[in-house]
Every structure is written in C-alpha cells, then in structure tokens.
Amino acid sequence: MRRLVITTALAVASTAGFAQKSTADGIAEYRAMLADGNPADLFEAKGEDLWKKKRGPKNASLEQCDLGKGPGVVKGAWVELPRWFADTKRVQDLESRLLTCMETLQGLNAAEIAKAPFGKGEQANMEALAAWISAESRGAKMNLPQGHAEERRMYELGKRAFFFRGGPMDFSCASCHGEDGKRIRLQDLPNLTKNPGDGVGFAAWPAYRVSSGEMWSMQRRLNDCYRQQRFPEPDFASDVTVALGVYLGVNAKGNKSAVPTIKR
Hints:
The chain is mostly helical. It folds into 2 domains: 1-36; 40-263, Cytochrome c-like domain (Cytochrome Bc1 Complex, Chain D, domain 2). It has helices at residues 2-35, 40-52, 94-104, 110-115, 121-135, 149-163, 173-177, 218-228, 239-251, and strands at 83-85, 90-92, 182-184, 187-189, 207-209, 214-216, 261-263.
C-alpha cells in the first residue's frame, strides 16, 4: 500500500511538471508565431513617411527634429531616451520630444495632440513615428544618459512612482513587476526593478498589440498600466510617465532593443 501511494505521488508530480513545461513551451511557440510577419512593419513605413512629409501650418517635415543626437539624426536616438534637452530645459521621452518638434517645426498644436484619444488622428501618427524611430535603433543597447542633474532626479522620481501604492486595489507598478517569477494568467511578468534582459520591459516597447490590432507606444503602455491599477490615467507625456521611462530605461542599460515587438 505504501509503495502504491509513493508511485501515485510520483506520477502526479511528473504529470504536473509535464503540464507546466507544456504551458511554457506553448506560450513560447505562440509568441514565435506572432513574431513571424509582425504588422509593425506597416506602422514603421507610415512613420518614415510622416517623418519626411511636409505637414502642418508651417508646411515642414520633421527631418530637422533633434532627438538628442543632432538635427535629423534618428539612428541610435531611441536607446538614449528619455534624456535632458537644453532647448526645452526638460527631460523628455520620444513622444514628448516629438510633440516639441511637431509644434516648433510644423506648427501643430502640441496641447491638442496630447489631449487626443490614443489611436486617433495625430495620436495614431505619433505611434507610427515611434514605431519607425525606435526601429532605427533595433539591436542597439539601451544607454540612457544620467550625466545631467535633472536626468538623475527624474530617475529617482520614476523609482518612487514605480513603488507608490494607492487606488482602490492598493496596487503599484511593483505589484506586478517588482519580483522574479510572477505571472498573470499566461503572461510572464518581468522584474523591472533590475536589468530584465534583451528585448524585455522597456526594451520591448513600442509594440504591436494583436488583441487590439494597434501599435502601442511606451506612453500608451504606461497609461494602460495605470488604468489596470484603477489609478486616474496620467496625461500624455506628463512628468510621471517620462520619469517612469527614465527609471525603467536606466534599469535596462546594456540590453538590446528589440522594438517594435509584437504582443498578444
């Protein structure tokens, strides 16, 4: 009888281990299939066209936009954002910097764009631009600067925001992304308090979301995180979202950017 119990227990443990392995393998296969023919390519093409196209009241392109490496230089810019910009005297991420360029170079209204719904009008254009610009740094290593005092201050602000608990669920960013080995449903949750690895966390956005059929920038990803926490959703390109980008980006230092990726 004792031998039967032991044999049965071993069989159950073996089956459980097999099921767990099969689930993990299935998720990996699903992601690999999604990555084959990423629709983000279409958004990249649109973004490149928007960068070069003359638009707005000033009938100008964005080709003189300085993303941190000089006017018009795109390659390598994404992996060094957010960063300090002397002309605005602010630490800016890609989207907030694009707002500056769209207003100063093209004459578009940055405040109106920031208030527009995600995926609509100029917000849709913003996400296409983010897809192309970030793709120009694909494979480069994340290397956010921390030489300016404001860059270091924004890192500390982002860290505080990441661990701040509140709202009806008493959640924080760290509730999901503050420890190793966490998962929600079938989705692995990377630990973003440390270097999460190539193409993970900050180095994996912008991304094409299969579930919504849309391109999501990092600003949109952060906004949705706040929504899921039942927090008031932050303003587009607000200081707290930029600060979180600094914190996550600095933690990802040395990781290779894989953007734009594809998500479920």
